[in-house]
Model the fold of this input.
Amino acid sequence: MITPLAYFTLFVVGIWAYQNNPTFHERTDTVVLRLENYVRQLSGQNTTSKQETSQSQTSTIDESGGGGRWVKNSTTIYIAIQNQTLKNALEDAISQWNNTGAFTFHITNDKDKATVIASTMDDSSNQAAGLTQMSLDETTGHFVSGKLYLNRAYLLNPTYGYSYQRIVNTAEHELGHVIGLDHDSATSVMQPAGSNYTIQPIDIQNVQKLYSQDTASNKASSTVASN
Done:
């Protein structure tokens, strides 16, 4: 018979392993992600999972992307990635987006202060080098939070031949989904393949267009007020 002390010890060991063992951390995240997708499939919700809250209705938008944006053209991201190659690639991708001036990612070391959590997965079954899930407030059309995953099973497997630049491109692609961009068949970082191109002028224009709605809305409000 397992005693309460044994359960507590297993719990403590599990928490320690999750925080200090990259392989255990990634496998746990992968299992949780699979369970989330399985639950959505059981409930008949393929790409959108909806739940009622006391204040608003929210939904989760998967990798197919689009349909939402942040209140402003910035958000805060926490990087929970142990592998140095993937961590560096994500940091470089963040810098590339920040350098465009169209959107700003603020990196924080406090997970509780982040609206987006970036981590890794190790899943060869979904044929995706990266995955993004965004929680959307359907009342406002604004993102509430997000999760970004870089898939070790592809990005770090020599069989698939991902150069460092292609890994950065993949991270830029997933960050594009975090911003609110959908897939784009043009010469774009948002091509469905996800790793062929870095950020292009059309991507910057699309972000500016997406977030210029605030300016148009404010101008309309000012006009009404002045009248």
